[in-house]
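Hi V.,

Quick status before I head out on leave. The structure for the redesign project is tokenized and pasted below; the design run finished overnight.
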């Protein structure tokens, strides 16, 4: 019978993820995990490439500007987890941001300059910038409408 090589914690060697100090240290490294002010939404046109290839091009191209690379902005808590939705040949890329408008504009320019993904021609185009405050205003307007219809 084959033995399993699964990690088995003991009294002298506790499980690394159950240790409170490891978890608290990981949480301290992210200054603003959920406090994003706006989202950058891109339309990505790339034929016959995988999602992994798109992310490789995205992170590779933004590393050209070292201090404003996407990976550095994520480490500092100024950018969130990028989401890529696939819709046929077009992809929708969403990048949550809490950085300054200048940093966001620089990152947007770097992303829009991507011409090739996995050796194939591609195009990244900024579709819209979703602002958190405008979303709050829309929710408040809708709530007023609902209250007026149902007194």
């Amino acid at each position: 019978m084959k033995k399993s090589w699964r990690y088995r914690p003991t009294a002298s060697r506790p499980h690394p993820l159950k240790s409170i100090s490891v978890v608290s240290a990981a949480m301290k490294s992210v200054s603003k995990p959920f406090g994003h002010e706006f989202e950058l939404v891109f339309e990505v046109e790339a034929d016959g490439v995988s999602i992994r290839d798109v992310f490789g091009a995205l992170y590779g191209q933004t590393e050209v500007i070292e201090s404003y690379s996407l990976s550095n902005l994520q480490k500092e808590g100024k950018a969130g987890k990028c989401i890529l939705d696939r819709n046929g040949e077009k992809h929708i890329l969403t990048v949550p941001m809490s950085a300054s408008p200048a940093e966001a504009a620089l990152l947007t320019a770097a992303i829009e300059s991507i011409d090739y993904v996995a050796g194939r021609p591609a195009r990244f185009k900024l579709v819209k910038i979703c602002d958190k405050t405008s979303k709050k205003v829309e929710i408040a307007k809708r709530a007023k409408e609902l209250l007026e219809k149902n007194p």
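Above is the designed sequence. Helices lie at 20-29, 51-62, 70-76, 101-112, 132-149.

G. will cover questions while I'm gone.

Best,
W.
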